[in-house]
Amino acid sequence: MGYTDIYDRMAVNIPEGEVRGMKVDRFEVISLKDWKPEHEKRKDAISPLTLARASLQGRAPKPGWYTRLSEGGVVWMSDTTAEREDHAAPVFAMSTTKAERVVIGGLGIGMVLSAALSFDHVKHVDVIESDDRVIELVGPHYLKDPRVTIHHADAFEQMDRWPADARWDVGWMDIWPDICVDNLEEMKRFTDFYGPRCGEFGNWSEDICKRRAWDNRDWEEDYLEFLTEEDQQRFEDEDEEDELWEDEEDDE
Hints:
Layout: H1 3-9, E1 17-19, E2 22-29, E3 45-46, H2 48-56, E4 64-71, E5 74-78, H3 81-86, H4 88-97, E6 101-105, H5 111-117, E7 124-129, H6 132-142, E8 148-152, H7 155-158, E9 168-173, H8 184-194, E10 198-203, H9 206-215, H10 229-251
Parallel strand pairs: 2-3, 6-7, 6-9, 7-8, 9-10
Antiparallel strand pairs: 1-2, 2-4, 4-5
């Protein structure tokens, strides 16, 4: 399965709406060459300046229409190409392992859930969501599929509620509003619980957080406890490879 197919499976088609400040709406990313002065008045249009800022972080979406979940103007989640890339791992795992049972922490706009339901071999998906507004706003669209169960619960408290024999083929946790090394402690708790209970398991942005912890290890060494020996060796190898490239460029 190629990334194009994975990205297509994560496209969402939920209706727009708002529940007690939580909002789902569509927005358009417009390229610089297509941007016109009248676009400035559109609340559903992303300006070239915003696009340029995202480009600096390597997260600029391609021009087109997308769906987002937001509260008070702060975006919780969207199905932009950058977000889909962040969530490609569990979808790829579902495909390669022919997963039948999936557990997802964080409903959001249902991007990973939508991908899971696109596979005929997926028989059941457990979704954990703590915000009742998200469930009320997004949940009905997915609950039309009898394979879906949404658990209204705190993600950590839910771990104590599962039956002792609960098992899944693929697990994915995404409960954090942003990418931060402080999330590593919670990620480890999820991994310790779901890792032995899932054939494949992962946390959103974990590798990015670990990389940041490694890069800042000289003054934030406490975070190193969340990096395995394999993680540290991998980052050392990457750093050595980067240094070799820099030396070769200097020689030229």
